[in-house]
Write a structure and sequence with these properties.
There is one protein chain. The longest helix is centred in the middle third of the chain and has 15 residues. This protein is α+β, with helices and mostly antiparallel strands. It is built from four helices and six strands. The chain is globular.
């Protein structure tokens, strides 16, 4: 069964796969907060559209990946997505296939927050291995 918040987040994943970053203007609230483990090169807290662009730009400078969604469900206005991120490091081409969880916070049909969780030690190990190639 479709749910409006699930549809919005599915659109985000489709846009990311096609590298359509116009989605930030269309779907993200101007005051969005993005959080991921600060240990990662793209991690930390990113605020607003400029922060979102910085987050995705830095992410794509370090990895070429695709989210494989295994479960996605609405929890009130939030959406929880559980899956894997699969790809390679840039540079170095080290392959990875890691578990991840994304929690999306929506209010009035706009994304106001995105919390990204990944197996951080394993991601850091792949990035370190890429540096030695």
């Amino acid at each position: 069964m479709s749910h409006p918040t699930l549809d919005i987040i599915a659109e985000v994943y489709r846009a990311f796969d096609s590298r359509d970053f116009g989605m930030i203007e269309r779907l993200f609230d101007p005051d969005i907060d993005i959080d991921q483990a600060a240990d990662l090169p793209w991690g930390g807290r990113h605020h607003g559209h400029v922060g979102a662009v910085g987050f995705f730009t830095t992410l794509l400078a370090h990895i070429d990946s695709k989210v494989i969604s295994e479960h996605m469900f609405a929890a009130g206005e939030d959406v929880v997505q559980v899956g894997r991120t699969v790809g390679t490091t840039i540079p170095g081409g080290v392959e990875f296939d890691l578990p991840e969880v994304h929690i999306w916070h929506l209010r009035q049909g706009r994304i106001v927050g995105f919390d990204a969780y990944i197996d951080t030690p394993a991601m850091l190990a792949a990035l370190r291995q890429a540096q030695t190639r």
